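Regression report. Comparing outputs from two consecutive submissions.

Submission 1:
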Amino acid sequence: MAERSRKQSRPAPARTAQGGSFFDAAAGGNFLTRSYLDASRRPLEVLFFLLPFIAYYEYELVRALRSPDGLVTNGAHLAILRLFDLFGLDAVALSLPGFLLAGIFLVQHVLSRGPWIVDLSVVARMFVESTVLAVPLLVFAALLERLVPAAGVDQFSALPLGARIAVSIGAGLYEELVFRMVLIGVLTWALLELTNLKRGAATATAVVLAAIAFAVYHPLAGPDGSVLPTRVLFFVGGGLYFGLLYVQRGFGIAAATHAIFDIVTALLIPQPDSM
C-alpha cells in the first residue's frame, strides 16, 4: 500500500489537448514546435498574417498602380480580374481578389469551427519563418546570376519603390493562389479521380506540373528572344520550392516567402532619379 501511495502521489506529466506530453520524443520532438507548425496552418492565423500584405497591396493598387493606361500588376491578379469581368463585376472588380483571398480563409475557419482567437506569437513567428525560407531561394537565384526583378511586370524598374514592393507582394499572394492553391488542388483531385495514383504520388505530380506551368507563365527569353536555360531552371526550381512549402507549411508561409523574395529583388534595383 505504501508503494502504491507513492506512485499515485507523483505529478502526472503535462498533457496536450490531444493527450500527449509537452515533450514526447516518440512523437517527434517538442510540443511547442509541433504546436506552432499546426497553428501556423490554421485559417484564422493565416488570414491575420496575410492581412497587412493584402492591405498594403490594395492601398498601392489604388494609389500608384492604377492609371488611365491600365493596371500595373502581375498576370495572375489580372487573370482573376478578367474572371470577375465575365460575371459583369468589372466596375467593382479591382479589390475583389483581395476580398476573395480573405473570404477563402474566413470560410475555412468557419467550417473548422475553431475559436475566434488569434495567437499573435504564431503570427510573428510566421513572418520570421517566411523571411528565413526566402534565403535559400535568394542564394539559388544568386548562383544562377539572376538577381533581377522576379515579379515579371513590364517597366518594373521604372516604378517608385513603394509600388515595386506592392507588385512584389501581389505576385506572392496571387501567383500562389493560382499556381499553388488552385492549380495543385485541381490537379491533385484530377489525378486521384482519373488515375490509380495514391494521394502522395498525386500531390507530388501536381506540384511538379504546377511548377512547370509557373515557369511557362514567366518570361523565359533573353534580349535576343532565345530561351535562357538559367531562367527555366530558376522558375521551375522556384515553383517546386513554393509547391513544397505550400504542401508542407500551408498557403500563408508559401505566399509570404514568395512575396519577401520578390521584395528583396525589388530593393536591389536603384530607384528612378525622380524619386
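Submission 2:
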Amino acid sequence: MTASQVYFTDVRAPVDQPERWYQPKLSAVNKLGRLVLKSGILDNISKGDQVAIKTHFGVHGTTKPLRPVFIRKVVQMVKDKGGKPFVTETTGLGMTKERSFAVSKIETAEENGYTSQTLSAPIIIADGLQGFDGVEVQVEGLQLKKVYVARHIAEADKVISLAHFKGHIDSGFGGALKSIGVGCIAKPSKYDVHIREPPTVNPERCTKCGACIDICPVDAIKDWKIDPTKCVRCQGCAEVCKDAISLNWVSSQELCERLTDCAKAVIDCVGRENFRYVNFLLDITPHCDCCPYSDNPIVPDLGILASDDILAIDKASVDMVNQAPTLPNSMAKCDEDKFHAIFEWTHSKYQLEAAEKLGLGSMKYEVIKVE
C-alpha cells in the first residue's frame, strides 16, 4: 500500500536575540495557516459549500481544550475559498449532565471561549436539542450494522476535523477517528458505542420511585419494565437509578471497534473525498476533554498534523507521542506505548487496527515537514 501523506509543522519559536523578537511567522497560528496551504486540505472546497468544522468545546472544568484561535484561522481560510463554515459539536450521552443538551453545550462553549465572534462562524450543535436528530446509515462494521449520523454532519458538503489529540481512559487516545466516530453521531449511537444492549430493571431492587419514568423522553417504561422496542438508548434512566437499572458496558477493545464502525458510517454518509483532518498535538493530556478537569500534559507540545487520511494521521500522532520524552509531574510512564502504560486495560492499537480492517486509511505514512 502506498504511504499516505501527513503534513507536519512544529510549534517551537526559538528566538535568542533581543533585536529579533518580532517574528510573526513563528506564531503557531501562522504555522497552521502555512500547513493548511501546503497540505492542500482545503483545495476541494467550492464556492457555497457548507463546511462543518468539527471540534470539541470541552466541558465545565476543562482547561486545556483546543484554543479557539486555531479554529478561527481555519474558518477564515475556508471563507477565503468561498465556503460557508459552521463550527459544530454533538451532545453527550445521557440526560442529566449539561453536556447532554444543545443549549447547555453552547453555554459551556462560551464559558471556554468558543463563540460565533471568537470563531468567526456560527456554532451549530449537529444532533439537535437533545441529541436524537440523526440520519440512519447502514454499515458493515466490525460490530455495528446501523449508525445514526448527526443530521447537520450528514447534510454538510465538507467536514474538517480539528482534533485536540490526547489520551482517553477507554479508547486509549482521542484523535481524528474519535472526533468523527463519536463526535459526529447522535445519542442512540453513542449509547451503542459504549453499551451492548438496552437497560434492564431488577424488580427486586426497584422501589417504584418513578424517577426513570419521569426522565424517559419516549415513555418506554411501563409497569417498571423497559420496552426495548421503544427505548431510544439515551442512558437517562440508568443515570437517575443506580440500584435497580443496570447497563452492560462494552470492553475497551469493543468500544474502539464500535467507534471506528461509526467513523466509517459517517465517512460513508458524507463521502470519503469530503473529509479532511487536522490533529493538534498540543497540551497532550492523559484524559479526554469530556472530563471535568485537565491533568498535566504527558509529553511536550509537538506540533500540528494535517492529512486526508484518518488512519495515517492518528497513527502518526500516536507514534510522535510515543517517541517524545515524558514530562515529570504527569501520569506519563516510560513505555513504548505511553497511553497503554497509563491505562493498562486499553491500547492505542485497538482503534488503529480496527480502522485498517475497515479500510479507512493506511498505517503507512510519510511525514512532510512544513516550516
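Expected: both submissions complete independently.
Actual: both completed, but the second showed a warning that disappeared on reload.
Relevant detail on submission 2: The first helix runs from residue 28 to 39.
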